[in-house]
């Protein structure tokens, strides 16, 4: 039955090109980009694009006599997923362990491409992660990956700009709108923030904060899915942002373009509603204004008496069904980021936000001071509480398709072609039609 769902994987179309750097015999035949310390040990091939990852790999290999990692960067995001999809179809060429964003796990597990790690000791490490992080890698009783880093959300803001216009950092979405209006009324050259119609997981997180649960899906019943993307919470949020757009209070620039990156750091946006990886992203932009004063604060709330924490992004390590030694592969997935030393590399060199509780809850991580934010302890002030309060999220097995459709509908809205309600109603209809065409039964 699962063969019917190839297209429903929705991550990527099957690529025609051969796997870059891998022979038809499998990813294990590709040359490693790292040193193998013990040539007699079992080698586990890994695809990952983490920054500063080679140091983490070297640390693992130096501390493990029986298992060694052979690492390849097969591309980031969809570039890697395209190669993985090709390998799934070919029946060979996949790595033993693969870095996947949590939002695409269902897209690959439905194709029998990932190993359920419950029989390989996943339960032994579950207590090392928050409930929300573990939910993101689970479906029913199955566990398809080990969490690595996450994106609990906060608000990064230009203190110097808000101070210049006498505006307090907003704590609620009502205050956010008032701040946007005050900035406009003062004749500021920029706007308070951007609303990117291509925000994808960002937009979905905003909806989730207002109670949206867009998908009901469990791999125990892989042919059934519930879709509810035009719920009251989503409509409330999208109508709010549509109002800000129509009043000229926010920009509608596409996220992660060169122009967007420039505007993030040149004062065009006074606020960047961001994930915990946002501080590292900001610091990495080459045109950062050296005179800017950045600070971090909790994400604004709809009801401050009942705060809801949300998440944008997150990556995992999954064991592929093509792994020859699944036990060894599971050891890599569980242990590569299972030490404080590895995580200090991830935090200090790669700006990752850890989901591994021994470092997440450590004094070291809590008390870190960030010079880019004026020495502020942003983990203690913002992101630790956001991570602890995140309850997890259920993604669809065709999440990329759903995001593409959401982008189209939001773009039509900001162009004035549709109301916010109509955009979400049309999104609901298109996803229901797609799911039915792919062989799913709607709950």
* Unreliable residue runs: 1-29
Q: How much is the average pLDDT?
A: 92
Number of separate structural domains: 2
In DSSP terms (H or I, runs of 4 or more residues), the helix count works out at 18
Helix content: 25-40%
Radius of gyration: 22 Å
Question: Can you tell me the CATH topology of the largest domain?
Answer: D-Maltodextrin-Binding Protein, domain 2
Termini separation: 18 Å
How many β-strand runs?
A: 14
Describe what you observe in this structure:
By secondary structure, this protein is α/β, with parallel strands linked by helices. The chain has helices spanning 53-63, 78-90, 105-109, 122-125, 131-136, 159-164, 173-185, 201-209, 232-246, 258-265, 278-284, 326-335, 340-350, 357-360, 363-366, 378-389, 399-414, 420-437; strands spanning 42-47, 67-72, 97-101, 138-139, 142-143, 146-158, 193-194, 215-216, 224-227, 250-251, 271-275, 294-298, 311-319, 441-442. The strands form four sheets. Strands 1, 2, 3, 6, 11, 12 and 13 form a seven-stranded mixed beta sheet that branches. Strands 8-9-14 form a three-stranded mixed beta sheet. β8 and β9 form a beta hairpin.
């Amino acid at each position: 039955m699962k063969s019917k769902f190839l297209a429903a994987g929705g991550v990527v179309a099957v690529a025609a090109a051969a796997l870059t750097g891998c022979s038809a015999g499998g990813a294990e035949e590709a040359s490693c980009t790292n040193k193998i310390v013990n040539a007699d040990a079992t080698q586990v091939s890994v695809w990952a694009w983490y920054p500063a990852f080679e140091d983490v790999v070297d640390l693992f290999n130096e501390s493990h006599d029986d298992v060694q990692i052979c690492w390849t960067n097969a591309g980031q995001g969809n570039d890697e997923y395209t190669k993985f999809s090709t390998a799934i179809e070919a029946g060979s060429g996949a790595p033993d362990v693969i870095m996947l964003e949590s939002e695409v796990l269902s897209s690959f597990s439905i194709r029998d491409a990932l190993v359920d790690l419950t029989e390989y000791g996943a339960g032994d490490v579950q207590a090392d992660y928050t409930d929300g992080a573990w939910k993101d890698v689970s479906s029913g009783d199955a566990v398809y990956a080990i969490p690595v880093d996450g994106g609990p959300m906060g608000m990064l803001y230009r203190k110097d700009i808000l101070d210049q216009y006498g505006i307090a950092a907003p704590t609620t979405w009502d205050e956010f709108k008032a701040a946007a209006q005050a900035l406009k009324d003062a004749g500021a050259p920029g706007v308070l923030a951007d609303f990117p119609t291509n925000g994808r997981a960002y937009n979905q997180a905003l909806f989730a904060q207002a109670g949206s649960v867009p998908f009901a899906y469990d791999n125990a019943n892989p042919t059934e899915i519930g879709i509810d993307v035009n719920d009251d919470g989503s409509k409330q949020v999208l109508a709010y942002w549509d109002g800000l757009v129509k009043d000229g209070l926010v920009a509608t620039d596409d996220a992660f373009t060169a122009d967007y990156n420039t505007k993030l750091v040149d004062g065009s946006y006074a606020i960047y509603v961001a994930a915990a990886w946002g501080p590292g992203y900001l610091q990495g932009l080459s045109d950062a204004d050296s005179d800017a004063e950045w600070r971090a604060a909790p994400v604004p709330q709809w009801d401050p008496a009942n705060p809801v924490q949300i998440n944008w992004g997150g990556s995992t390590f999954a064991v592929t069904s093509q792994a020859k030694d699944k036990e060894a592969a599971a050891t890599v997935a569980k242990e590569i980021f299972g030490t404080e030393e590895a995580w200090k590399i991830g935090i200090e060199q790669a700006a990752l936000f850890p989901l591994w509780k021994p470092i997440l809850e450590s004094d070291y991580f809590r008390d870190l001071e960030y010079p880019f934010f004026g020495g502020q302890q942003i983990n203690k002030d913002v992101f630790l509480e956001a991570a602890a309060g995140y309850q997890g999220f259920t993604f669809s097995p065709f999440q990329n398709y759903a995001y593409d459709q959401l982008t189209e509908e939001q773009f039509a809205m900001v162009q004035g072609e549709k109301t916010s309600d109509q955009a979400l109603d049309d999104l609901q209809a298109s996803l229901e039609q797609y799911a039915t065409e792919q062989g799913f039964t709607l709950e």
